[in-house]
Amino acid sequence: MTTLPPHAERTRQQSDLWSSKARTWSRWARPLEAMATRFNEILTEAAGVTPGARVLDLAGGAGEPAMTLARKVGDDGFVVSTDLVPAMLPTIRARGEEAGLGQVLTVAAADMEHLPFAPASFDAVVSRFGVMFAPHTQAVADGIRRVLRPGGRTALMIWTTREASTMLEVLGTAVEAELGMEPAHPDALGPFRFGSCTRLPDALTRAGLTGVTAETHVFSPRPRLADDFWRPQLDMSWGHRLDARPEARPAIETRIRTAFAALADAEGRVPLRAEMRVVSGIAPV
């Protein structure tokens, strides 16, 4: 029978995996900023972020949604962007300084299951595509509740299912056709872990948050086929597998181009669908 490794080992595995991705995420952070902002605005609104707010960003990656949040809160607020992987933090810090947000946006290495912040420290806690990678969901929810001030809000963005997002489905299918499926436990810490269940909103409710909701959002971009628009997502999500098998990359990229060409319209644009869910709640007053 397959068993999950102990918590400390699972956390280490996650840290090692994301450390290996840090350079790739840094490389693509700026080119993807415009697209990321569209997602971030939904998250910012759901969390009730306003000028002057104190905001905690969990699993900050290469700086999204922290950049959008920092611009929103302005000079009278602040954003603390955290990540389990210290190698991610220099990119967030550099982007903030380049944008003139260095006094508003700070970074900290932190495990979202063990937040090193005082109770009621923040007006809002957000995470974009990050909470599904923490082994213990309830510990995350309890920590969010603890650091939120009374009346503060949390908003957590997750993917629904791979099939509901064209890009992820096409890329994943191409990678698996050449490299096979990644070994996974049924409760594996993957990007679609919460997509078809109520585990995350249930955890927030058990933590004592009120008004918990789960709202689905759909984006429908139409990128140009000729632009290889899929390359950043391929490298950021599957680059660690391609780095281990570089000889497979040409065949994978051929499969991807063929699949998207079959979807392209007469104008050479590819209609995509990206489905995500925002789970939010309020700390009781």
TrEMBL record:
One Gene Ontology term from the biological process aspect of the record: methylation
A Pfam entry, by short name: Methyltransf_25
Domain Methyltransferase: 55-152
GO MF annotations in UniProt: methyltransferase activity
UniProt keyword list: Methyltransferase, Transferase
UniProt-listed Gene3D superfamilies: Vaccinia Virus protein VP39
Protein's recorded name: Methyltransferase, UbiE
